[in-house]
Amino acid sequence: MVEAAEGDGAPTLQARKVVYCGVCGVPPEYCEYRSPIVKCKAWLKEHHPDMYDELWSEEAMEEAMKGMSVEQREKHIKTSEKNAKKAEVDDARANEKKRTAKVLVSHSTRGGNKHVVTVTGLQEFIDKDTLKNFPKEMSVLFGSSCKFPRTGVDEFQMQGDVGDEFAALLVDSYNVPKKNVVQVEEKKKSKS
Fold it and tell me: Mapping DSSP to helix (H, G, I), strand (E, B) and coil, where does residue 160 land?
């Protein structure tokens, strides 16, 4: 939104500063309509305590519920409790999925001395923004061609015999647990 600021002559336009939630990505006023409200509240309390007090303090909650009927208040409380339980269950599932997920680093040879390393399972440990720039970072780091062969597929390919170094990089720089990185050597089928 743009607001007009009065000055000496003609009004000048100034942009409003809008705060967006670091968890769900919407302005904090709308976080209550999204599912991870507990996380949103914690983020808001940590990063913008004044806005948290304005939206979620006891006084603000009483003021918001002032115009509600008894049935609406009970429904609001039940919905809030249900969303909190759902968020806890979703967190537990996500943690379990991350704990059991594997990053598969497979080495294969094609035509003589040519090596290809194919990696699957990265999306569980690396966020989407980092994953977007991943091929470029790896090609600079390893000096080899790196790409996602098809969009929408969780598969990453690198040319060269860099599988061991890549696995070590995942553990050291991207905090992937060593037990979750599995290396596989694919043997080339011999012609008979």
Answer: coil
